[in-house]
Amino acid sequence: MALRERMESAAVKTVVRKPDHTPKNGQRDLVPAIDQWLETVPSRASDLHIDRLSPEWKLPANWLEGSVRSLKIATDRCRRTLPNYEIALVFSLKSSNVPAPPAFQTWDDLKRHFDQSPPSLYCFRVGDEPWISSRKSFAVIKEFGQDVLPEFMAKTCVFMSYQNDSEPQYWKSLAIIQ
Questions:
Q1: Smallest Cα–Cα separation from 123: which of 159, 154, 166, 78?
Q2: Phi/psi zone of residue 100: left (φ > 0), alpha (ψ -120 to 50 degrees), beta?
Q3: 5, exposed or middle or buried, with CB in 10 Å at 0-12, 13-18, 19+?
Q4: What is the pLDDT along the chain (178 residues), one digit of tens a residue?
Q5: 63-81 and 30-40 are packed helices; what angle lies between their axes, rounded to 10 degrees?
Q6: What is d(CA 68, CA 79) in angstroms, rounded to the nearest whole number?
Q7: Taking the domains of the chain in order of start, what are their residue ranges?
Q8: Distance of alpha carbon 23 from alpha carbon 48, whole angstroms
Q9: Which helix H or strand E contains 72, and what residues bound it?
Q10: Which residues are within 8 A (CB) of 131 and not within 5 positions of it... i.e. 6 or more apart?
Q11: Quick one: which H or E segment has residue 68?
């Protein structure tokens, strides 16, 4: 078969194919994976890194999409199955010798402060969130309003900074709760 005939044949096949309904960018359905994780929550504390839900979310450039999608689905599923719990999406930030939060108002501001770890989902019993139950363990806790990071439609954002006795730097994280 001549090259032209093969190209025409391929073009015709492309036109008659059924639409591809697989999840965008090869992502598998997130609901079963999140439900499976939520089933373990009452028996043990665990987190779920978003890159375990979709390999493409290993890349920091994809963390916004992965974070927004996984937080929304996890929050919806948690409200249905574990009404006394809430979901937090937690970003690990670069440590420093200063306990104060980094200056940010937008996603672009914040992503400059990420460390190398992809964001994680956490599920806490309402009232047992670490920024409430372990408040004295943190050097700084600062709550931000809904206007910060509007992409997440957050109820609140909580910055936390803590220091191990043996280390000079402060470890920092930002939790987003819907």
A1: 78
A2: beta
A3: exposed
A4: 443 343 334 333 333 333 333 344 444 589 999 999 999 887 776 799 999 999 999 999 999 999 999 999 999 999 999 999 999 999 999 999 988 888 887 888 888 999 999 999 999 988 888 888 777 778 788 887 766 777 778 788 889 998 888 888 999 999 998 8
A5: 60
A6: 17
A7: 28-177
A8: 20
A9: helix 63-81
A10: 138, 141, 158, 160, 175
A11: helix 63-81
Query: Could you tell me if 170 and 163 are in contact, meaning their C-beta atoms sit under 8 angstroms apart?
Result: yes
- The whole-model pTM stands at 0.79
- 113 Cβ contact list (under 8 Å, min separation 6): 93, 94, 102, 104, 172
Radius of gyration over every alpha carbon of the chain, rounded to an integer in angstroms = 21
Total residue count of the chain as it appears in this document: 178
